[in-house]
């Protein structure tokens, strides 16, 4: 039995409705494809609907809707879902996207744990598990991910590989090497060809995405960032990263390194800027820095960042000094994010960031001294589940696309 599995969980991912612009009618095949995709997106977003409802929402005639639905039913992407009980006369037939037409797997690989979740194409979670991560090499990592994935699929009763798998990683996925770079804290991720090995062992197409980006995706779709078009998610834990959402989509930059703010030379004397592989900002503002500030203030040498925040909540003066020092470091980051990105909202998460209530007074005081720009700050709400949820959202989007193209033969 896989530890932590929760089959039958009713958690559902509700993705924002896709907006497909009308396409010029250059031929009947293109029109049919466009109509089908519009209808399928509506069924994913709204759930079971009748032909008249779909006609009104899509702006299409009922004969067009009928033809498109017939094709989707024949391809196994849509199914009949009964009839409403209320109403005068014979109620109209309901249709829904067939949730069993595929499935998506999301994976968050941490230093100690591999977290996995599986959902059908309706976004309903089928299974969830946390398993220990024993990997010390890249080969171990591939084997651990593949083994945990197979066990989760078996627990959920899925015969075969997932339709798509999204995996959270530190650093930046480099397509040319098919591996992750800028992940010196977790060297097993940096093996060339790692992505191909994962795809072979997991058995499906995969997406490897930065963990802060995935947390930003989750907060944008399900968390504190719902409704924001321009959002920055600042992750402060054992590492530091930034997920950037622009017009509802993750912004990656030219090489995928947008948001790698661990390398910002903030608060560094130019003579001391030796550019460590870990990143200068990360050296000064990640969780271990909070512990160092606390030790410098007189706390025991073995104190952890979690201990520091707990002591600060209890009024320990030494811990409060450390929290204030950390807040001043983060204020420079917040000021830089506001100036460069001008987001509607900056969400703060991670093991350190989840203590925003303690950090915020000194942080905002320092920001006011640094810049006239004022971007609202808020605590992320999804906690340690945010990265996994973001992976599941990303995997679900890709799985729906793959299911459509695979079953219809059209892109």
UniProtKB/TrEMBL annotation:
Sample GO molecular function, one term: kinase activity
InterPro entries given in the database record: ATPase_NBD, ROK, WH-like_DNA-bd_sf, WH_DNA-bd_sf
Alphabetical keyword list: Kinase, Transferase
Top-level lineage group: Bacteria
Protein name, entry field: Putative NBD/HSP70 family sugar kinase
Transmembrane regions listed in the UniProt entry: none
Pfam families referenced in this protein's UniProt entry, alphabetically: ROK (PF00480)
Entry's family note: Belongs to the ROK (NagC/XylR) family.
Keyword Flavoprotein in annotation: no
Phylogenetic placement of the source organism: Bacteria, Bacillati, Actinomycetota, Actinomycetes, Micrococcales
């Amino acid at each position: 039995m896989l530890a932590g599995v929760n089959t039958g969980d009713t958690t559902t991912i509700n993705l924002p409705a896709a907006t497909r612009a009308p396409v010029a009618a250059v031929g009947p095949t293109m029109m049919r494809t466009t109509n089908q995709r519009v209808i399928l997106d509506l069924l994913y977003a709204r759930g079971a609907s009748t032909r008249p409802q779909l006609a009104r929402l899509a702006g299409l005639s009922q004969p067009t809707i009928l033809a498109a639905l017939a094709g989707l039913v024949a391809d196994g992407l849509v199914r009949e879902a009964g009839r409403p009980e209320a109403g005068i006369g014979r109620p109209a037939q309901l249709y829904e996207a067939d949730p069993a037409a595929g499935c998506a797997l999301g994976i968050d690989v941490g230093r100690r744990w591999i977290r996995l979740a599986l959902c059908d194409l309706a976004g309903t979670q089928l299974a969830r598990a946390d398993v220990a991560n024993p990997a010390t090499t890249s080969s171990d990592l591939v084997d651990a991910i593949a083994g945990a994935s197979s066990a989760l699929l078996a627990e959920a009763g899925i015969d075969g590989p997932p339709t798509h798998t999204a995996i959270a990683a530190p650093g930046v996925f480099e397509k040319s090497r098919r591996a992750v770079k800028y992940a010196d804290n977790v060297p097993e991720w940096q093996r060339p060809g790692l992505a191909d090995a994962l795809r072979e062992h997991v058995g499906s197409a995969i997406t490897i995405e930065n963990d802060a980006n995935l947390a930003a995706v989750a907060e944008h779709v399900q968390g504190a960032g719902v409704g924001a078009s321009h959002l920055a998610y600042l992750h402060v834990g054992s590492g530091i990263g930034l997920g950037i959402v622009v017009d509802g989509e993750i912004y990656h930059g030219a090489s995928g390194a947008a948001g790698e703010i661990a390398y910002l030379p903030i608060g560094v004397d130019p003579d001391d800027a030796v550019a460590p592989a870990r990143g200068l900002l990360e050296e000064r503002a990640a969780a271990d820095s909070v512990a160092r500030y606390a030790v410098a203030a007189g706390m025991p040498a073995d104190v952890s960042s979690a201990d520091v925040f707990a002591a600060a909540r209890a009024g320990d003066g030494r811990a409060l000094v450390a929290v204030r020092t950390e807040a001043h470091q983060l204020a420079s980051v917040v000021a830089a994010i506001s100036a460069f990105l001008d987001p509607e909202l900056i969400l703060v998460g991670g093991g350190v960031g989840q203590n925003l209530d303690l950090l915020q007074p000194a942080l905002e005081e320092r920001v006011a001294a640094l810049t006239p720009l004022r971007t609202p700050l808020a605590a992320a709400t999804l906690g340690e589940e945010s990265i996994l949820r973001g992976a599941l959202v990303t995997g679900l989007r890709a799985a729906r696309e793959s299911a459509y193209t695979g079953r219809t033969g059209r892109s």
